[in-house]
Amino acid sequence: MATRTSPVTKGAQYVALAGYMLFLGFPLFYLLMASLKTTQQLASLDVWIFPRTLAWSNFSEALASQGIIRSTLNTLVVSLATTLVVTAVSLPAAYAMARFRGRLRLVGTGYILVSQVFPVILIIIPLFLILRTINLNDSLVGLTLVYVTFCLPFALWMLQGFVAAIPVSLEEAAAMDGASRFTMLRTVVFPLLVPGTVATAMFTFVSAWNEFFFALVLLQSPDNFTLSRSLALFVGAEGQVRLGPLAAGAVLASIPSLVFFAILQRRLTGGLLSGAVKG
Amino acid sequence: MTTVTQTPPPVPLPTAPSPHRRTSRMVVARRKEVAALVIPSLIPILVFSVVPLVNGVYLAFTEATLSRNSSSAFTGFGQFRKLAGDQLFLDSFKIGMIWAVSVTVLQLLAGLGLALLLNANLRFQNLTRLLALIPWAMPPVVVAIMWKMLYNPNSGPVNGVVRLVEPGFALDWLGSFGTALPAAIVVGVWVGMPQTSITLLAGLQQIPDELVEAAEVDGAGSWQRFLHVSLPALRPVMTSITSLNFIWNFNSFGLVYVLTEGGPGGQTMLPMLFAYNEAFKYRDIAYAAAMGNVMVLVVVALLMFYLWTQFRAERD
Q: Is the ipTM of this complex over 0.85?
C-alpha cells in the first residue's frame, strides 16, 4: 500500500510491533532457557533469564523418565496412522464436495459447523461406551479411530478449498480426450493437489500430535500414554516436580508441531482461510 | 463420462434420444460415482461422530452411569431439574461465560491490532508472522506447562519483573482467588490471538487498494481510513472469526485443565471441566450429558443473537 504515514505514527507502530513480538515470542524463549537451567536455579528466587550453568542433562533426564520415549513412539504411531487414514479417505470426498456442489456441499459444510458447536463431552461419553464394549478404550487403535473422526471435517474443508482452486477446464480437456473419471482423477487432479494434500496431512498430523482431551479420557495404562498425557502427569504432582527436565520434555514435545507449522506458514494463511472466508 | 455439471453441452444435437431417459441414466451413474467418493468419509463420521452425538444428547434424559450394567432407559427431565438447583454448576457456567467473553473480545482486539500492523508497511513482518505461529502450533499441554513456569511465584519471570519495583513480591497468580481466572484468560488470549489475526489479515488484504487510496485522496487520515474503509469491509470476517472463537473458548478444556485443574476453589472451573469431572470422576454420565446439552443450547442462542445483531448492522 502506498499510503502516507507520519513518522510519529510509524514510530508508534514499531513500538506496538515490538510489544507483540515480545508477548508472542518470550514464553517460548523462556521455556528454552528454562530447559537448560539447573533445578537449583529454577527452584530459587533467581530470575536471571539465562542459565547460570548449562544443564544439558535436563534433556537426557526427561528422556529417561516417565516412559517419555515410549509415549513419543505412541504419539508418533497414532499421529501417522491418523494422517494416513484421514488423507486417503478425505481426498475423494473433498473432490466430490468441491465439484458436485449443491446438496452434498451444503450437508458437508453444515456438519462441519455443527461439529464445532457441540462440546466434545457429549460425544466422548457415548464414544467411550462404544469403544469399551469392543475393548478399544485404553488402546491406540481406539484413539486413532477417534482422531480420524475428529480430524476429518477440517481436512475435508481444507482439501475442498484446494480442489476448487483447480480449473474445471483441465478436467474437461481430459474428459474430451476420452479419459474416464478415475483416470482423470489420477492423472490430472491428484498431481495438482499434491501441495494442498501435503499441507492438509501436516495439519492433521499436528492436530493428532497435540491432542489431549481424548487421550486423557481414553488412555488409562501408562504404556499407552501419548506425550501430552505423560507431560500432564508431570504437572499433577506439583511441588515435587523437577522443572528443568519438565521444560526439556515440553521443548521436545513441541518440536514436530513447530517445524510443521513453520513449513505450513504460507498454506495456513491461504488454505484455511479460502475455506473460512469464502465459505 | 462428461458429467461435469457446470458446463452445458456445447451444441445440443437435434437428434438426441429421449432426453428424459438420458438424463436419468446419467443422474444414476453420477450418484454412484459420488457415493463411491464420499462413503469412505461418511462411514467413520456416522459411526464415531453422528451416532455418538445423538446418543450423547439422549443420555441426558436417562439415569445412566459409567458402570457396565447401568440402564439407559428414558426417565425424563430429572437431570435438568437437578442442574437448575446445582449452585456449583451455575457458578461454573458463570465462570465459563466470563472466560469465553473476555478471551474472545481480547483476542479480537489484540488480533485486529496485530493484523493492522502486519498489513502496514513495516519491517520485521515476516519474523512477527513466524512468531505468531508459536502459540498456534504448540500442544496445549505444553502451553499450560510453559505458562505455569512463567507464573511460578519464585522463579517465574512475571514475578521477577514485579520484584524490580516491589522486592519480596511472591504472588501465586494461578493459585490465588482473585488472580487465577484473569491469569488464565491471558494465556487463552495468547493461544488464540494468532489465528484471529491471520484470519483478519487475510480479510484486510482482500480490501482493494484503490478503496483505501481514494479515501486518502479525499483527505482521510489513517484513523478515519481505518474507521470508514477497513472496518466496514472487515465486518463479515470479524463476525465469523468471533463466532468461531466464542464457540471454541466456551468449549475449551485442555489448557485450563493443566493450568489449574479448575482451582483454586473452583475459581477456574469451566463448564467443560465440570462436566468432565462429573462423567469420569464421579461416573455420573447422564448428569454430564445434561450439562453438555445446556451448553449447546446456550451457545446456539447466544450465537443466533450475535449473528442477528451483526446482520442487522450490516444491512443498515
A: yes
